[in-house]
Amino acid sequence: MAKDILGDAGLHFDELNKLRVLDPEVTQQTIELKEECKDFVDKIGQFQKIVGGLIELVDQLAKEAENEKMKVSG
C-alpha cells in the first residue's frame, strides 16, 4: 500500500530499495537509449573516417588527372 501511494506521487523503489524519482521502466529505457546513442556516435565516427579517406583518394586522382591533361596539352 505504501508503494502504491509513493508510486502515485511519482516515487519508486529500485532493486536496492533506494527511493527513485523515475519509474524503473523509464530508467531502463534511458540506459538502453544511452547505449544506442553511444553506438550510433561510434558508427558515425567510423563513417567520417571512411568518407575522409575516400575524399582524399578522389582529390589525389583529380590532381593526377589534371597533371595528365597538362602533359597532353603542353
Précis, in short:
With 74 residues, the protein is mainly α.
How would you portray this structure in words?
The protein is mainly alpha-helical and about 70 residues long. The protein has one domain (about 1-74). It has two helices and two strands. It has helices spanning about 1-10, 25-74; strands at about 10-15, 20. It has a two-stranded antiparallel ribbon with strand order 1-2. A hairpin with a 5-residue loop joins strand 1 and strand 2. The radius of gyration is 28 Å and the shape is rod-shaped. It starts with a helix and ends with a helix. About 0% of the residues are buried. The model has no long low-confidence stretch (mean pLDDT about 90). One of its GO terms (cellular component) is cilium. Its main location: other. Keywords: Cell projection, Coiled coil. It holds the Pfam family IFT20.
Q: Mean of residue pLDDT?
A: 88
Listing every helix as H and every strand as E from the N terminus to the C terminus, the arrangement reads HEEH
How does the helix and strand content classify structurally? mainly alpha
The Rg value, from CA coordinates, equals 28 Å
List the total number of helices: 2
Query: What's the shape?
Result: rod-shaped
The strands making up the biggest β-sheet line up spatially as 1-2
Helix content: over 70%
Question: What oligomeric state best describes the polypeptide chains here?
Answer: single chain
β-strand percent reads: 5-15%
Secondary structure tally: strands: 2
State the major sheet.
Answer: 2 strands, antiparallel
Tally of domains: 1
Low-confidence stretches: none
Distance between the termini: 92 Å
